[in-house]
Amino acid sequence: MNLGLSGRRAAVAAASSGLGYAAARTLAAEGVRVAICGRDRDRLTLAARKLGEGAHPVVADVSTPEGATAFVREAQDALGGVDILVTNAGGPPPGGFAATPLDAYQSAIDLNLMSTVAMCKAAVPAMQERGWGRVVAITSITVRQPIPTLILSNTARAGATGFLKTLALEVAKDGVTVNSLLPGFHATERLRTLRGGDWEQVASEIPAGIVGDPGDFGAFVAFLCSEQARFVTGSAIPVDGGEYAGLL
Predict the structure, then answer these.
(1) Tens of pLDDT along 42-88?
(2) Closest CA to 188 of 145, 147, 217, 146
(3) Signal peptide position in this chain (predicted)?
(4) Taking every pair of C-alpha atoms in the chain, what is the biggest distance, in angstroms?
(5) Which of 171, 213, 231, 237 could serve as 176's disulfide partner, Cβ 3.0–4.6 Å?
(6) Half-sphere exposure (Cβ direction) of 200: Cα atoms closer than 13 Å
(7) Are 126 and 78 in contact (CB under 8 A)?
(8) Residues 6+ apart with CB under 8 A from 12
(9) Which of 122, 234, 221 is nearest to 176 (CA)?
(10) CA–CA separation, 47 vs 141, rounded Å?
(11) What are the Cα distances from residue 242, in Å, to 153, 189, 239?
(12) What SS3 class is residue 218?
């Protein structure tokens, strides 16, 4: 299927590895010019080289609104504009209610909520002016089904989901779609950190019986950015092998 993306320009946050990199790789394969960001210059440069000619690495820390805004601004300068924004950030430290201090919440909110707000503030107005744009946020299945040991992520990402849904309603008439993907367990370094890399044990907890492939996730991001997905907006879609157990 031709997704109609060739020649578009994308800013993909936190994309030196994991699901962000998978999204950037699929978009690049569809002919999209991509700018990616990360904090580690060497790791980021290697990722950009693997993505191919035209990929632009931006050393940026999206854990602050200032860093998130700076990433989008540099991507716009490097690419001549941004048609597609993929928001993404690492997860805050694990912990439950009793073990999590009050002052930990603000940094989590900056990382997983305010970074998304800042990137959208920097990118979406120009999309509205052009009459075409795509925002895809990578959040977490914890938005729908909170994990008790990830209270910071549960809280901050739920706030981001509310923001994204509200934004989607406001900009739909301008040809801009806004959706979020809620990944379950995928074979990434984040999951290795949380679960120790025992993929067989993790797979046993997933109805599909397998751990998610980041490449498949990246393909879903690309579809939401496509011309064919122009009627999909305001959605928060689980990509989790059936892990989410609710009806709605």
Answers:
(1) 999 999 999 998 899 999 999 999 999 999 999 999 999 999 999 99
(2) 217
(3) none
(4) 50
(5) 171
(6) 0
(7) no
(8) 20, 23, 24, 27, 34, 35, 36, 37, 86, 88
(9) 234
(10) 26
(11) 20, 21, 8
(12) helix
Interacting residues of 101 by C-beta distance below 8 A, sequence separation 6+: none
Sheet holding 9-12, edge to edge: 56-59, 33-38, 9-12, 84-87, 133-138, 176-183, 236-239
159: how many CB neighbours lie within 10 A of its CB?
17
pTM (predicted TM-score): 0.95
84: Cβ–Cβ under 8 A, 6 or more apart, which residues? 5, 8, 9, 10, 11, 27, 32, 133, 134, 135, 136, 225
CA 211 to CA 217: how far, in whole Å? 12
Tokens of 234: 């305001």
Residue with tokens 């504009």: 81
Query: Tokens standing for 206?
Result: 């997933």
Residues paired with residue 177 on neighbouring β-strands, in sequence order: 134
pLDDT digits (tens, 9 = 90+) for 94-110: 999 999 999 999 999 99
Query: Helices (DSSP H) in 80-180: which residue ranges?
Result: 104-109, 115-130, 151-171
Tokens of 16: 């030196």
Torsion of CA 218, 53, 88, 203, to 10 degrees: 40
Spell out the domains of the chain, with CATH numbers in brackets: 9-239 (3.40.50.720)
